[in-house]
Every structure is written in C-alpha cells, then in structure tokens.
C-alpha cells in the first residue's frame, strides 16, 4: 500500500463507529467518517462531537465527517460499523462507491436474519472478489473513546492484509491483533450477544452469580461447538473475539445485550426491554439457532433465548428446561 494516503474510512457514526474513528485518528491516520444523515454530519463538523451516540467525547481533529459516500473512494480501507442487519444494503451502496481493491472490514456483530448468512458471506456476495475482514473483540465504545486500554482482533484471509490493517489501526490505547480465521472471529462476535441476553436475564431475575458463571462456561461450550461445525478455528474462540468478548458482554450492564436480558428478567416485555437501543443478539438469535439446528449442534442456552424472544417460553420455563435436561458428560 506504499504511496497511498494513510486515510481510513468509517461507514456508520454511531457509538462504535465514532469510537473507532477516534482510535484510528489517534493511531496516526486521517479519517473520513461517513453517516447517512447530512444534518448529523454537519452537526459533528460544527460541534466536533457526536452528542447523540457518544456524549462527552471530543472528535479528533483528523476526522472529517461526511454524508457523501463518494468521499470514501480514495481511502486505504473502510470499516463498516452499521448494525448487522444493514450489512447487505450498506455493502451494496459501498460497492458502488469504492474501487474493488478497497478492503471492507466488518465491525458489526451478528448474522443476517433474513438469509441466515454470515456477514462476510453477505459482503462477498455483494462485492465478489473484493477483500473482506472482520474486527471484533471485547471493546465498549465508551472505553475505547475515553482512551482506556483495549485489545481486539482483526481477521482477513489474506494474512499480510490483516497484519497491515492491524498495524495501521493500533495506537497508544487500542491494540489490534491480526488473524486469518475470519469465520471464527465473526462467529464469536455474533453468538456472544445471544448468550449475553441469557446472562442478563439471570441477573435481572436475581438467580445469582453461580448461575451466571455456569451460563458463561456452558455458553462458551456452545460457541465452540458451533464454531467447529461452521469452520471456525477453536483456538480463535479462546481469544479476544470469542472468550474475551463473551466474558465482557456477559458481565456488564454496560452491554446493551446484557441490559436487555436484565430487563426481561425483571419482567419487561421484549419490546419494552429493548428501550429503542440496538440489541444485536435479539436480531441474531433466530438465525443462530436455525444454523445450529441445521447441523444438529446442541445449543440449549441459545435455544432458550430464542424461545423467550419468540414468546414461546417464559423465563421460568427456560430455566426449568435448562436445569432439567438429562444428566450428561461435560463437553
Ligand atoms: N457500541 C459498542 O460498544 C460496540 C458495538 N459494536 C457493534 O457495532 C455495530 C454498531 O453498533 P453501535 O455503533 O454501537 O450502534 P449505534 O446504535 O450507536 O449506531 C448505529 C449507527 O448505524 C447507523 N445506521 C443504522 N441503520 C442504518 C442504515 N440502514 N444505513 C446506514 N446507517 C445506518 C445509525 O445511523 P442513524 O443515526 O442515521 O440511525 C448509527 O450511526 C453493532 O453491530 C455492534 O454490535 C461492536 C463493538 C462495540
Ligand atoms: O460488543 C460489544 C462489546 O465488545 C458491545 O456490546 P453491546 O452491543 O451488548 O453493548
């Protein structure tokens, strides 16, 4: 990439897109930060802050907000940071704006609900032959934006590209590891959100810390089984994007997925519990469970979350179902 301007493009200026923009700028890059609303872009440019999604955080001076996709045309790589379910429409829009060689790095965590496709497969369908990567790991936007030490993983099938992008994005407070296992990294991010809803529900219902720890451990076993069956490397799942993110998201009410589960556990309806926030695990649960069933992968916790979300089971029924499964060997 010698000779190219060190500019990173970011599509999506919510909490995570804005935090990543600041981190990329801190790492020495110029950043073009795209959002769909021209009014929002004008507000960011005028106030040098994103009060709607990341209040109290100043926008780095090297970030240029824009609502014109064409402004991303010359960048070194684009990080796609809009919700998982917008991946198809956003990659199609970006396909029209970017040269084929520009890598697209997915930062959303989920599985496409309508098709049951992994997000990287969606991007590859829409931009055949173009380089695709995934960035994922334990990282609350607020922490990254405040410059607290954070580590994530960036995976591309092209190992040299993964290393190059990880180096470009790593800075004083964000450490980016690189890896070749795209599938493993994206599975970790997508599935942990569903499991975090279960952990939140247990906390909300007051079922105790022991139950939460059991869910994390047994949830991790589900993650491993699923990843193995769908071509992820189990070693990836032991790392930041798997176990690391599962532990973070299952332990903190700062997570929207955990907080959503917590409110379900306190007795709110599914609609009330979301509270207008993005809850990726709720959007992905049915697709995850359908993929698991298609390969007869045993994922009772993910199944229980899906049954609660679809209204088939109450939380108490889900707990009963999990506790009364036949006694088995731990694996
Ligand atoms: N927040 C976090 O700590 C982390 C989030 N992530 C992941 O990043 C992804 C985004 O999360 P986050 O930034 O927190 O979400 P937010 O809700 O904060 O922001 C979502 C952003 O996506 C934009 N958007 C929504 N729909 C569309 C669309 N159809 N077309 C274009 N833009 C759209 C919104 O724009 P508008 O304002 O116009 O609606 C907004 O800028 C999720 O998959 C999440 O799991 C990953 C790691 C950490
Ligand atoms: O993915 C995240 C942290 O790594 C953010 O989780 P939530 O979407 O649950 O807030």
Automatic annotation (TrEMBL):
<feature type="binding site">
    <location>
        <position position="256"/>
    </location>
    <ligand>
        <name>NADPH</name>
    </ligand>
</feature>
<feature type="domain" description="Glycerol-3-phosphate dehydrogenase NAD-dependent N-terminal">
    <location>
        <begin position="8"/>
        <end position="161"/>
    </location>
</feature>
<feature type="binding site">
    <location>
        <position position="16"/>
    </location>
    <ligand>
        <name>NADPH</name>
    </ligand>
</feature>
<feature type="binding site">
    <location>
        <position position="280"/>
    </location>
    <ligand>
        <name>NADPH</name>
    </ligand>
</feature>
<feature type="binding site">
    <location>
        <position position="109"/>
    </location>
    <ligand>
        <name>sn-glycerol 3-phosphate</name>
    </ligand>
</feature>
<keyword id="KW-1208">Phospholipid metabolism</keyword>
<dbReference type="InterPro" id="IPR008927">
    <property type="entry name" value="6-PGluconate_DH-like_C_sf"/>
</dbReference>
<dbReference type="InterPro" id="IPR011128">
    <property type="entry name" value="G3P_DH_NAD-dep_N"/>
</dbReference>
<comment type="similarity">
    <text>Belongs to the NAD-dependent glycerol-3-phosphate dehydrogenase family.</text>
</comment>
<dbReference type="Pfam" id="PF01210">
    <property type="entry name" value="NAD_Gly3P_dh_N"/>
</dbReference>
<feature type="binding site">
    <location>
        <position position="139"/>
    </location>
    <ligand>
        <name>sn-glycerol 3-phosphate</name>
    </ligand>
</feature>
<keyword id="KW-0444">Lipid biosynthesis</keyword>
<keyword id="KW-0963">Cytoplasm</keyword>
<keyword id="KW-0520">NAD</keyword>
<dbReference type="InterPro" id="IPR013328">
    <property type="entry name" value="6PGD_dom2"/>
</dbReference>
<feature type="binding site">
    <location>
        <position position="36"/>
    </location>
    <ligand>
        <name>NADPH</name>
    </ligand>
</feature>
<feature type="binding site">
    <location>
        <position position="141"/>
    </location>
    <ligand>
        <name>NADPH</name>
    </ligand>
</feature>
<keyword id="KW-0443">Lipid metabolism</keyword>
<dbReference type="Pfam" id="PF07479">
    <property type="entry name" value="NAD_Gly3P_dh_C"/>
</dbReference>
<feature type="binding site">
    <location>
        <position position="255"/>
    </location>
    <ligand>
        <name>sn-glycerol 3-phosphate</name>
    </ligand>
</feature>
<feature type="binding site">
    <location>
        <position position="192"/>
    </location>
    <ligand>
        <name>sn-glycerol 3-phosphate</name>
    </ligand>
</feature>
<keyword id="KW-0560">Oxidoreductase</keyword>
<keyword id="KW-0594">Phospholipid biosynthesis</keyword>
<keyword id="KW-0521">NADP</keyword>
<feature type="binding site">
    <location>
        <position position="256"/>
    </location>
    <ligand>
        <name>sn-glycerol 3-phosphate</name>
    </ligand>
</feature>
<feature type="domain" description="Glycerol-3-phosphate dehydrogenase NAD-dependent C-terminal">
    <location>
        <begin position="181"/>
        <end position="319"/>
    </location>
</feature>
<protein>
    <recommendedName>
        <fullName>Glycerol-3-phosphate dehydrogenase [NAD(P)+]</fullName>
        <ecNumber>1.1.1.94</ecNumber>
    </recommendedName>
</protein>
<feature type="binding site">
    <location>
        <position position="257"/>
    </location>
    <ligand>
        <name>sn-glycerol 3-phosphate</name>
    </ligand>
</feature>
<dbReference type="InterPro" id="IPR036291">
    <property type="entry name" value="NAD(P)-bd_dom_sf"/>
</dbReference>
<feature type="active site" description="Proton acceptor">
    <location>
        <position position="192"/>
    </location>
</feature>
<dbReference type="InterPro" id="IPR006168">
    <property type="entry name" value="G3P_DH_NAD-dep"/>
</dbReference>
<comment type="function">
    <text>Catalyzes the reduction of the glycolytic intermediate dihydroxyacetone phosphate (DHAP) to sn-glycerol 3-phosphate (G3P), the key precursor for phospholipid synthesis.</text>
</comment>
<feature type="binding site">
    <location>
        <position position="245"/>
    </location>
    <ligand>
        <name>sn-glycerol 3-phosphate</name>
    </ligand>
</feature>
<dbReference type="InterPro" id="IPR006109">
    <property type="entry name" value="G3P_DH_NAD-dep_C"/>
</dbReference>
<comment type="pathway">
    <text>Membrane lipid metabolism; glycerophospholipid metabolism.</text>
</comment>
<feature type="binding site">
    <location>
        <position position="137"/>
    </location>
    <ligand>
        <name>sn-glycerol 3-phosphate</name>
    </ligand>
</feature>
<feature type="binding site">
    <location>
        <position position="278"/>
    </location>
    <ligand>
        <name>NADPH</name>
    </ligand>
</feature>
<feature type="binding site">
    <location>
        <position position="109"/>
    </location>
    <ligand>
        <name>NADPH</name>
    </ligand>
</feature>
<keyword id="KW-0547">Nucleotide-binding</keyword>
């Amino acid at each position: 990439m010698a000779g190219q301007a060190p500019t990173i493009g970011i599509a999506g200026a919510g909490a995570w897109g804005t935090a990543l923009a600041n981190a990329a700028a801190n790492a020495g890059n110029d950043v073009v930060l795209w959002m769909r609303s021209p009014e929002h872009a004008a507000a960011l440019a005028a106030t040098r802050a994103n009060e709607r999604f990341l209040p109290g955080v100043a926008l780095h001076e090297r970030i240029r907000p824009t609502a014109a996709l064409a402004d991303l045309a010359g960048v070194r790589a684009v990080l796609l940071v809009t919700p998982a379910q917008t991946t198809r429409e956003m990659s199609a829009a970006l396909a029209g704006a970017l040269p084929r060689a520009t890598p697209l790095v997915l930062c959303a965590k989920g599985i496409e609900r309508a098709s049951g496709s992994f997000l990287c497969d969606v991007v590859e369908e829409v931009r055949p032959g173009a380089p695709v990567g995934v960035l994922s790991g334990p990282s609350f936007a607020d922490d990254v934006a405040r410059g607290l030490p954070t580590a994530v993983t960036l995976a591309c099938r092209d190992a040299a590209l993964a290393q190059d992008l990880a180096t470009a994005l790593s800075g004083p407070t964000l450490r980016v590891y690189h890896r070749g296992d795209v599938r493993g990294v994206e599975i970790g991010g997508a599935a942990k959100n569903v499991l975090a809803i279960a952990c939140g529900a247990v906390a909300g219902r007051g079922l105790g810390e022991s139950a939460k720890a059991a869910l994390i451990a047994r949830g991790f076993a589900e993650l491993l089984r699923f990843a193995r069956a769908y071509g992820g490397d189990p070693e990836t799942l032991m790392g930041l994007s798997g176990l690391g993110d599962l532990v973070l998201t299952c332990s903190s009410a700062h997570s929207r997925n955990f907080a959503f589960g917590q409110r379900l556990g306190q007795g709110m309806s599914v609609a009330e519990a979301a509270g207008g926030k993005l809850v990726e695990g709720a959007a992905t649960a049915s697709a995850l469970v359908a993929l698991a069933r298609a390969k007869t992968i045993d994922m009772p916790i993910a199944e229980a979350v899906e049954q609660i979300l679809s209204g088939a089971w109450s939380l108490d029924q889900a707990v009963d179902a999990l506790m009364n499964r036949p006694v088995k060997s731990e694996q």
